[in-house]
Write a structure and sequence with these properties.
heterodimer, A: 251 residues, mainly alpha, globular, B: 324 residues, six-stranded mixed β-sheet, elongated
């Protein structure tokens, strides 16, 4: 199974280059520790929950953005070293190549998201929905990471070099992060902005993660809406990624 | 059966550049085939098409009688391509690189292990097993790169400038390995190189292309006909003796194309080697003693430069004479 072959190779690369793990988690960690501590003092008056608990879902999604963006970067390393072409002219299915790389980004995202959860425990965060809730945290992270990894993969194949790629990905990540419910509740925002937020799919995974952390019952309605939206998006981005990879041999 | 057959191949890139222009080639099964051409001649484009990395614009390309565009997956299982960049993964060990490659080609674990052991021995890589790949020299990395590509037991091995950037010792080691691959594994080798002596030494067939078209194809002996001249080079003890002999030969009414350069005399004798004996005989009979006498044959470099009309360099003795 070449998906596993490529996945294990990329995981090995990641652990041989621990700086790439550190760099992907450091910014979300700063948001979680510094921003939540400072902003939490102002948010006390408007919210009656621990602000770290409130922003943890958004930061978990932010870490998946970071990991997935780094996953797309691997394509540039592979192209410069020649292994990209080597794999492409071997009898491996294009879908296996795409999935192998996407699953590496997904695995790293789940790993780093749980590190953030562990760290947040030191800031009095509790997962109110219990053991099942803790297990269900994986689902929105998986979907968010799969979709974002697909986007990163496709963009990395379309762009000519890593400098432009990093700039474009920073724009995409900042836009999706700030146009979401990651940092603030939607109750007091205008109707126009609220409609705009519904167009960002990551809002659904942040909201479901937040319900798992803050509520003691599982919001299955929110779970199914998120699952349906992301299943469709993940299938679409997967086919787009495979098509983009196939076009690499169409110079 | 031909390993590769190319008919009227055209490759035009989206930016309008025509890299291959009605190219026709045949590579016989089991031979070492060298493709030569100046930069931009279309060598890499051709390799990229034959290895399924690029799609052609028009024409026909066959690998073992199967059209590449119709059976790309089948073709991929029969070939391997060592590209200009060394493509080994430096974060994996020597054996891990080879195992990864074997899994790409769906080779079962037992067969893969046997092949890897054989290749490590054949390529003399045993002593490097315990060291990280990143610490290998360029020559050893290239050796591993080729060994790794041999794990799938390809029927055709493409080598795209494999010795570029290697020192002369590593290059000579690699020549031995290329010969070994042909001999021991019966693999057809398609080689591109900038080192003409490499092509001259290794190849059964040499093909020179320029601007996407074949100019000449054949064995080295067959290519020699493009420069139907041999040069007699006679060396003397000093320049004075050389000059005396030169004047003597010049005064003989024999229409010889003769040239003096320091303590050497160069004479164009075309293909008629009897003239060589006559000249030496004349010198000996008239007591003009010389230190050495030889026939200088045109080198592949000379043929290449003549055919590609690139500005001639004066490095070879042959060219020195022609220019003089």
């Amino acid at each position: 199974m070449n998906i596993i072959n490529i996945l294990l190779r990329n995981i090995k690369w990641r652990f041989q280059n621990p700086i790439s793990i550190l760099l992907t988690i450091i910014q979300p960690l700063l948001w979680l520790v510094l921003y939540s501590t400072i902003a939490g003092q102002f948010m006390k008056e408007t919210m009656n929950v621990n602000y770290v608990s409130f922003i943890l879902p958004g930061i978990m999604v932010l870490v998946t953005f970071s990991c997935c963006s780094s996953g797309g970067y691997i394509n540039f390393i592979m192209k410069s070293k020649g292994s990209f072409q080597r794999i492409l002219i071997s009898p491996v299915r294009r879908s296996d190549i795409v999935l192998g790389q996407i699953f590496e980004a997904v695995s790293l995202s789940i790993f780093e998201a749980f590190i953030l959860v562990l760290i947040s425990l030191f800031f009095s965060v509790r997962i109110e929905s219990g053991i099942l809730g803790i297990l269900l945290l994986i689902v929105p992270i998986f979907f968010s990471a799969f979709f974002m990894a697909g986007i990163s993969y496709t963009i990395s194949l379309k762009l000519p070099n890593e400098v432009i790629y990093e700039t474009v990905m920073s724009l995409v990540i900042l836009f999706l992060f700030f146009m979401s419910t990651a940092l603030f509740p939607t109750e007091n925002v205008s109707v126009f902005f609220r409609v705009l937020l519904t167009l960002n799919p990551f809002v659904y995974s942040i909201n479901f993660l937040r319900s798992l952390i803050l509520e003691n019952t599982i919001n299955w309605n929110s779970f199914f809406i998120m699952t349906i939206i992301f299943s469709v998006l993940c299938i679409i981005i997967f086919f787009v990624s495979v098509k983009t990879l196939e076009k690499q041999t169409d110079s | 059966m031909d390993a590769i057959k190319i008919e009227n191949l055209v490759k035009k890139y989206k930016n309008g550049v025509k890299a291959l222009n009605d190219l026709n080639l045949i590579v016989k099964k089991g031979e070492i085939f060298s493709l030569l051409g100046p930069n931009g001649a279309g060598k890499s484009s051709l390799i990229n098409i034959l290895t399924t990395y690029y799609k052609k614009t028009s024409g026909k390309t066959f690998i073992f009688e199967k059209e590449i565009d119709e059976k790309p997956a089948w073709v991929r299982s029969k070939i391997a391509c060592v590209s200009q960049n060394i493509s080994i993964d430096e974060h994996m060990s020597l054996v891990e690189n080879m195992i990864f490659q074997s899994k790409l080609y769906k080779i079962d674990a037992h067969t893969a292990k046997n092949r890897i052991d054989t290749l490590i021995k054949q390529f003399e890589l045993q002593s490097y097993l315990k060291y990280p790949v990143a610490s290998y020299s360029g020559g050893i990395k290239r050796r591993l790169d080729i060994a790794m590509h041999m794990v799938s037991n390809p029927k055709i091995l493409f080598l795209d400038e494999p010795t570029t950037g290697l020192d002369i010792s590593s290059r000579k080691n690699l020549w031995e390995i290329i010969k070994k691959i042909q001999h021991d594994f019966k693999t057809t080798i398609f080689l591109t190189t900038h080192y003409l002596e490499e092509a001259e030494m290794l190849s059964d067939t040499i093909c020179i292309i320029n601007e996407g078209k074949e100019i000449a194809c054949g064995s080295y002996l067959e290519l020699e006909k493009y420069i139907p001249q041999n040069i007699v080079k006679i060396g003397f003890l000093n320049e004075k003796l050389a000059e005396k002999s030169y004047n003597f030969l010049k005064n003989q009414k024999n229409n010889l194309n003769i040239n003096l350069q320091k303590k050497y005399i160069f004479i164009n004798i075309s293909q008629d080697k009897k003239v060589f004996e006559i000249i030496l005989n004349k010198l000996l009979v008239n007591k003009f003693s010389f230190e050495s006498a030889e026939i200088v044959k045109p080198k592949l470099e000379d043929i290449f430069l003549k055919l590609t009309e690139v500005e001639r360099r004066t490095s070879s003795e042959y060219n020195q004479y022609i220019i003089a």
